[in-house]
Amino acid sequence: MASAPRPVALGTFAPETASRLARHRALFANFFRRELFSRYLGSVTGIAWALVHPLALLAVYQFVFTTVFRTGPLNGKSFLVFVAIALWPWLAAQEALMRGTVSIAGYAGLIRKVAFPHELVIYASVAATMALQFVGYVVVLIVLALFGEPVRFEGLVLAVPLWIIIGVAVMGLTLALAALQVFIRDVEHILMPVLMILMYLTPILYPLSLVPEQMKPWVAANPFGYIVDRLRDALLDGRLAVGWGDAVAVLVALALFAGGRWIFLRLSPHFEDFV
Amino acid sequence: MTPPLLRLSGVGKDYAKLDTNAAGRVRLVFDLLRGRGVAHAFRALDDVGFELAAGESLGVIGENGAGKSTLLKIAAGVITPTRGSVDVHGRVGALLELGSGFHPEYSGLDNIDLAAALLGLAPAEIAAKRDEIVAFADLGEHIDEPIKHYSSGMVVRLGFAVATALTPDILITDEVLAVGDESFQKKCIAWMENYLADGGTLLLCSHSMYHVQKLCRNALWLKDGRVARYGDAPGVTQAYLAYHEEKAASARRPVATPQAGAAGAYAIQSLTLEPVARVRADESLTVRGEVFSPDDRVPVVLVGLVRADGTPVYGVATDMDGVVPQRIGARRFSFAITFPRLPLLPGKYFVRAHALDPEGVRLFDNLEEDFVVEGTSRELGLVRIDHGWESGGPPPGES
For labelling alongside B127, which of B186, B270, B335, B350 has CA 20 to 30 A away? Predict the structure, then answer.
């Protein structure tokens, strides 16, 4: 038979779009809780760990860099606050990416037996990680402020949208990687070292101004570096003005999301056979 | 006219043959991303179509690996067909395999919430239904324990309770009724009968012809991914059983070597049935034939009825009844025997005619002709035996 495959009307369980959206929202909420509770809060010390972890890590950085390496102030700010503001979003993105990439496997039972939009798994996984990490971020900012660091809390007005931009971009990347992971199990193993390398290539532990002149364009081209700069502007200097660069950041995030979703939707009909 | 609740047309499903090497995997992903079919595919289903209108019930039968589960998953929307289209109008409740989509770490109650969310219920609706589900599953205090501590029967009970409490427009269910203890199975069957009586629509997959005949009006027999037969349940299940009987018989029975044509042998030369090939239970069946006699003496003819798997049902010879075949020419005789109101139960049978010497001692030749007894009876066995019950009044549910 030579006829091209016709589009298949699936998921028409609820004919009206509105009720389908409601159905997906309820499902997303359930998955979101599942991600939050089973991964972070299921264990006895879960809630405490979610808050203690960022602070413990920060204390270690403080010890290693300012006590051992005796790193001085960067861009006029103490090393600790300079790094903390950039490191947290990176760790959040990294964790969301890594957890999200392997999240499909945790839903294998559902995917094999129940009809539902598989992308909800990724959204729930990334959103849960990002949301929890953002809470940790705020805790870190408060602790820094208590230690007398010059944190400008009005900067959160800009920091929240910036985190959302990160979240959207990470969702796009995670959609693509999670779909690939179903077919090629190596993805998760390649991801860890790649992220480690990228972290050091991003101006997180150092300011862009310290990068040698001939390498600067390469480092500056990193979109995450731009977001990090904007976070420092907002939370350390209280600069809240929005520019064209932010619009580009939004577009880049949306493009990543659209591209990742396209890959995911192409591959997800075949998940059932491979998970 | 209202459209059918479920319509599959020309549905086919190819599964990629799994490449073990990495390069094959990468190529597969690229093929899928480019929207092309997979290069090495196993055709699990091909050109399957059926319609299911509101209030209808369809049983899918077939051997292991025939594609039944794939078909049900496609109908439930769990997997996308490679070819063809699926149209669904209504809420589908699918209960596929053990504990459809339960999370082993979650308690029974949490899994009820998850399953209800998967079916598209709002949190308020879920709360309203929860007690009903808990009562039907009847798991006692286990309902608060993680599913991983459940026995398989308990998981099925919970699964069935969830799938049914939400009264789907179409219930799609796999071989799940076979699990669970006797009383729960009865509860399930009773629920399904009520559901069907109330106009529910059922797509059932079962190896139990008894369940298919009891619960389904129509049946679809899948063989190697294709529709072998699709029609009313009694007809299709009988054809399916006959196929199995024949398969079993051909595995068992050495091929008979008739000595037809051998010089000096009595031989059946022709055999015809009236009606041909199909007879309704309780109709009459006439068997006619011609027999060759090498020495022109009148031979004895034995006619037997044999079920397709080789089980003899009844046999009778001319000399037993004191009759003789009729001479119709030199060394040629004809015979005819009528079975009025054939009491055979629906199924596939053979008529086997043997030629014997005039003494009725030596068996020479046999010729077979198969036929199907049609009917809707669910009685068990080979023949209908006259009987009478003492009844205690009208059956329950009829007034």
Answer: B186
Residue A195 contacts residue A92 (beta carbons within 8 Å): no
User: What sign has the CA pseudo-torsion B337, B342, B343, B345?
Assistant: positive
CB A123 within 8 A of CB A25: no
| E strand segments, B238-380 | 267-274, 278-280, 285-292, 300-307, 312-317, 326-329, 332-339, 347-356, 363-374
Is the CB of residue B114 less than 8 Å away from at least one CB of chain A? Answer: yes
- Is A10 in Cβ contact with B88 (below 8 Å)? yes
Give the pairing type, strands B92-95 and B170-173: parallel
B15: β partners: B42
Q: How much is the pLDDT for B176? A: 58
Query: Residues near B357 by Cβ (< 8 Å), separated by ≥ 6?
Result: B266, B297, B299, B300, B364
**Dist. CA B297–CA B318, nearest whole Å:** 14
Q: What is the pLDDT of residues A140-161, one digit of tens each?
A: 899 889 988 888 999 999 999 9
Task: Read off the DSSP letter of residue A249.
Answer: H
Please say whether the beta carbons of A40 and A49 come within 8 A: yes
B341: its two tokens = 């109101």
Tell me which amino acid residue B326 is: Q
Domains of chain B as residue ranges with CATH: 6-247 (3.40.50.300), 267-374 (2.60.40.1930)
The encoded tokens of residue B336 equal 């005819």
CA distances from B287 to A63, B181, B209, B293, B338 (A): 102, 48, 31, 19, 6
Of B10, B83, B94, the CB nearest to A114: B94
User: pLDDT (tens digit, 9 = 90+) per residue, B303-350?
Assistant: 999 888 778 889 998 988 888 899 888 888 999 999 988 888 888 888
CA quadruple B373, B377, B382, B385: dihedral, nearest 10: -120
Q: Amino acid identity, residue B152? A: S
Per-residue pLDDT tens digits for A110-123: 888 788 899 999 99
The answer to whether B91 contacts A14, with C-beta atoms less than 8 Å apart, is yes
Evaluate the CA torsion angle A259, A263, A265, A268 in order and state its sign. negative
3-state secondary structure of B343: coil
What own/partner pairs with CB < 8 Å and gap ≥ 24 does B124-130 have? B129/B165, B129/B166
pLDDT at A7 > cutoff 80: no
Q: Which of A3, A6, A12, A13 to mutate to test the interface with B (most CBs of B within 10 A)?
A: A13
User: Considering only alpha carbons, which residue of chain B is nearest residue A111?
Assistant: B78
- Provide Rg for chain A, Cα atoms: 21
**What is d(CA B274, CA B336) in angstroms, rounded to the nearest whole number?**
10
pLDDT of residue A14: 39
**Higher-scoring residue by pLDDT: B166, A256:** A256
Strands B218-223, B57-62: parallel, antiparallel or unpaired by DSSP? Answer: parallel
Cβ distance A220 to A208 under 8 Å? yes
Cα–Cα distance for residue pair B165/B188, rounded to 1 Å: 12
Cα angle A163, A168, A170 (rounded to 5 degrees) comes to: 90
Residue B364: closest CA among B290, B295, B264, B250: B264
Q: CB of B33 within 8 Å of any CB in chain A?
A: yes
The span from the first CA to the last CA of chain A, in angstroms, equals: 30
A264 vs B33: CA distance, rounded Å: 9
